Every structure is written in structure tokens, then in C-alpha cells.
UniProtKB/TrEMBL annotation:
Keyword Methyltransferase attributed: yes
Signal peptide coordinates: none
UniProt-recorded name of the protein: Adenine-specific methyltransferase
Residue span(s) of domain YtxK-like N-terminal helical: 8-87
Superkingdom assignment: Bacteria
Cited SUPFAM superfamilies: S-adenosyl-L-methionine-dependent methyltransferases
Molecular functions (GO terms): DNA binding; N-methyltransferase activity
Gene source species: Brochothrix campestris FSL F6-1037
């Protein structure tokens, strides 16, 4: 059976049992997603409202879904289709949308390269959403002794979906349902990777502990999250973040640069093609920061480049060559 067929077949199987449970409970599709996965793992129908006949049919169907030998990446792709259907059907707002694979694969490549020498690596996403990005990155890391994953998410439905997805992929993860800008009970990590929420942070009181807050009015959540990444990185650790391209310009850019001079460095800015975004102001870049280490490092170039259309294999190959050269020189 080809990998392609497997992930599509797996999607069909999952979708069928999710639809059945959704119909029986009258819930949204996404609620039925995590309830289905919970039922599958518990081996029972946990919702008392489901009629015995339906419960029996569901349990029989669960038994036909055999994940034992299916690679985690195939399961992720099937689960991604399930989530895409649910996010569309339940009309989830854009700031909560899953990170697309085209972006996740580049971020995964970067995290793999940047942490290549760390045999036991811990990755942290402070705004993990459905977990799709962190799982995409995880599944791309090569030859490690251990990969520890940590995620924080403020939305209870999304954190449940991240938990369900990790279970489906048999990937251990530490998940916390809380504000990612609060005090977090986590040890310093090797890399932070995140597609950050863009916009204002409503908690002015909470923002007070951040250098990058606004002096008046609401602060920018994405800017505070950059600082939060530094708060939880080990010395010399990297943050690979999806951020508005204009974060490095104007007054915000000046303040961010001043902060970076104290705390670390800007390493890379990969601007995504305009065609991915509806408005020009919404254009984003993958930005890589590094936290200061105990030993000063020789200065090196910041890699700033515009990415081509991500489906243009030839141009992407040229970019990968440029990235490889940068990695070799730094
Ligand atoms: N990478 C995620 C994925 O693949 O599903 C998508 C992340 S989405 C663009 C941004 C996420 O930030 C949303 O899930 C949103 O609920 C979350 N978020 C917003 N404010 C937050 C906060 N203060 N703390 C933690 N998470 C937050």
C-alpha cells in the first residue's frame, strides 16, 4: 500500500466515525474529533447519550482503524485533513487556523539544521493551536536520541485537538492549557517554534512584565511572544517564528532591535511570497532569532531573502542551496 493511499484511507476511516459520533451527539465536527479519538484510545464510548446500537457500530468501526504500523507522518497528514474539514465546517477564525505544510516544512528544515548537534532536543510552541506545526517539525527531525515536545495553548478546544493528534501519532508531548504569555512551568528549551497569534494582547496587567510592551494601551501579542521565546530558551537556543514581515520596521522594529542587542541576535528573515496572503500588510516571514550564549560569537551575516512561490521546485532548490551555504559559514 502506498503512503499516499494510506493517509487518504485513514482520513476516510476517521471521518466516517467522527461523522457518526457527531450525528449521535449533535455537537460540532471538531468536538466530535477529539471525543472520537478519546473513545478510540479508551476502547469505549464515553458519551452516555449515544444509543447502544450506535455505540456498538462505532466500537466495531474503531477496531478496523489499525495505526500500529502507520508512520507518524502519514497519521499527521490524515489528521490534518480531518482538522481542515472541521476548521472549515465549524468556521474557526483565521487567527486560529492551522499552519500549512508548505510553511511547516521550511520551519522543520530550519529547526533540524539549527539543532542538528543537539542529540536530546526539546522544542516548545507557546501558541500550539492544533499542534500541526509542531508535529510537522517533529516528524522532520533526523537522528536524535530524544525529542521532547512542549506546547501551550489558551483555547480549550484547540489544546484538546493537539492532545488527540499527538496520541494518534503516538508522540509524547507535554501540553498546558493556559495563556502562553503567563508564567510557565517549563524548563529552558533548545528551540522555540511557533506560528504566533497576530494582534493585540488584551491583558495589559500581564503585559507589564515584558520589556517589549506598549507604554500605553494594549501591547502586541506577537511582540510579547518574541520576548517570551527568549524567556524560555537556553543560552544559544534558537527561535523559529512566523511573524508579520513589518515587525522589523518602524518604531516596533527599533524597539525589537534594541531588545535583541541585549538578549541575542537576528539570524534569518525568509519573507514568504505575497501570493500566500490576501493583503500586503498581512505578509509574513519566517524569522530566526538566537539567544545570547555565555561566550561571544564572531559576527556573521543575517540571511535575508524573499522566498519564491513555494510550489516552484526549481526556485526553492536555489533557496535551499543558499540556506545550506549560510549554515556552512556560520
Ligand atoms: N501552529 C498552529 C497549528 O498548526 O495549528 C496554529 C497557531 S495559530 C496561527 C495561533 C494560536 O495562538 C491559536 O491557536 C490561538 O488560540 C493561540 N493563542 C492566541 N493567544 C494566545 C495566548 N495568549 N496564549 C496561548 N495561545 C494563544
Amino acid at each position: 500500500m502506498s503512503t499516499e493511499q494510506t493517509f487518504e484511507q485513514l482520513y476516510e476511516q476517521l471521518n466516517q466515525v467522527i461523522e457518526m459520533l457527531k450525528g449521535a451527539l449533535g455537537t460540532t465536527y471538531l468536538e466530535a474529533v477529539y471525543q472520537t479519538i478519546e473513545n478510540m484510545f479508551e476502547g469505549e464510548i464515553k458519551q452516555a447519550e449515544v444509543a447502544p446500537e450506535t455505540a456498538k457500530t462505532l466500537l466495531t468501526s474503531y477496531q478496523t482503524i489499525d495505526l500500529a504500523d502507520v508512520p507518524a507522518e502519514v497519521v499527521r497528514r490524515a489528521y490534518q485533513l480531518v482538522l481542515l474539514k472541521g476548521l472549515r465546517e465549524d468556521k474557526v477564525q483565521t487567527n486560529h487556523q492551522m499552519t500549512p505544510d508548505s510553511i511547516g516544512f521550511i520551519m522543520g528544515y530550519l529547526v533540524d539544521k539549527l539543532t542538528a548537534k543537539t542529540k536530546e532536543v526539546t522544542l516548545f510552541d507557546p501558541a500550539i493551536g492544533t499542534g500541526n506545526l509542531l508535529m510537522t517539525v517533529h516528524n522532520q527531525l533526523k537522528a536524535r536520541d530524544a525529542i521532547n515536545l512542549v506546547g501551550v495553548e489558551v483555547d480549550d478546544l484547540l489544546v484538546s485537538l493537539a492532545y488527540a493528534g499527538a496520541n494518534l501519532q503516538s508522540t509524547p508531548i507535554e501540553l498546558m492549557h493556559q495563556d502562553g504569555l503567563g508564567n510557565l512551568l517549563i524548563n529552558p528549551v533548545d528551540a522555540v517554534v511557533s506560528d504566533l497569534p497576530i494582534g493585540y494582547y488584551p491583558n495589559d496587567e500581564g503585559a507589564k512584565s515584558f520589556t517589549l510592551r506598549e507604554k500605553e494601551g494594549h501591547s502586541f501579542a506577537h511582540l510579547l511572544f518574541v520576548e517570551q521565546a527568549f524567556n524560555y530558551l537556553k543560552a544559544d537556543g534558537y527561535a523559529v517564528l512566523l511573524l508579520p514581515s513589518n515587525i522589523l520596521a518602524g518604531d516596533v522594529g527599533k524597539r525589537l532591535n534594541a531588545y535583541l542587542q541585549q538578549e541575542g541576535s537576528l539570524e534569518m528573515v525568509l519573507q514568504l511570497p505575497d501570493s500566500l496572503f490576501a493583503q500586503k500588510e498581512a505578509v509574513k516571514s519566517i524569522i530566526v532569532f538566537r539567544k545570547k550564549g555565555s561566550v561571544a560569537k564572531p559576527a556573521h551575516d543575517v540571511l535575508i531573502t524573499q522566498l519564491p512561490n513555494l510550489s516552484d521546485a526549481k526556485k526553492m532548490l536555489a533557496i535551499i542551496k543558499k540556506l545550506e551555504a549560510w549554515f556552512e559559514n556560520t
